[in-house]
C-alpha cells in the first residue's frame, strides 16, 4: 500500500508510517485488495486527509467502518459517492441539519464539500471487505487513527470534535478537552436516533457558534 497522503499529514504522521505495525497493516490491506473486492477503492483509502489538509482541520467527525456496499464508500466517513442512495444514518444527519439550521435536504450524500471546508471525516478503520462489516477491524487501522486524533489534539487548538455513539466517544479519550470543544450524542443510525439519542442534538449550529467565537469561518453544512 503506497501511502500517498497530503504533505501536512505526511509530516505529522511520518513516525507512524515507519512503525512495524503499519508495515503489517499495509501488507494485510494489499493482500485483501488483491484477493477480494474491498472498499473504498485504493486511491481513496486516504481521501479524508487529501480533501482536508492538516492545516485546514477545524472539525473532526469520527465514524467506525467504511460502507461495505458496492459504490458507496469514498474514503470519508458517513459520505457516499454521487448518484448513490443515502444510507439511513446519513439521511438522519441531514434531517438534523434541516431541523437545526433550516437548510434544504441536499440532492446527494457526497460530503467532500464538508471536507474541503476543514471537516476531517475520519473512519476508525479505513478499509473493509465487500459486504463484510468490520472485516478489517483490529488489524492496525485503529492504532493509526488514534495517532491521527492525537496529532490533531496536540498540535492544533480550538477544534470541534463531534462524537456520535459509544465507539466515537471512546476515541474521545485521546483528545485534550482543555483546548478543544467536544460535542457528544447518540449515533445517527435509526436504532439510536429513533430512541431519542440523536435528533435535537443541534451539533451543527453549536459547531458554527464555537467556530465563530474563535474567529473561524462557519461550515456550510
From TrEMBL:
Pfam families recorded: UDG
Keyword line: Cytoplasm, DNA damage, DNA repair, Glycosidase, Hydrolase
UniProt-listed SMART domains: UDG, UreE_C
Active site: 65 (proton acceptor)
Predominant place of localization: cytoplasm
Reactions this protein catalyses: Hydrolyzes single-stranded DNA or mismatched double-stranded DNA and polynucleotides, releasing free uracil
Keyword Oxidoreductase: no
Cellular compartment(s): Cytoplasm
Span of domain Uracil-DNA glycosylase-like: 50-211
Entry's EC annotation: 3.2.2.27
First-tier enzyme category under EC: hydrolase
Keyword Cell membrane applies: no
PANTHER family for this protein: URACIL-DNA GLYCOSYLASE
Described function: Excises uracil residues from the DNA which can arise as a result of misincorporation of dUMP residues by DNA polymerase or due to deamination of cytosine.
Protein name as catalogued: Uracil-DNA glycosylase
Gene: ung
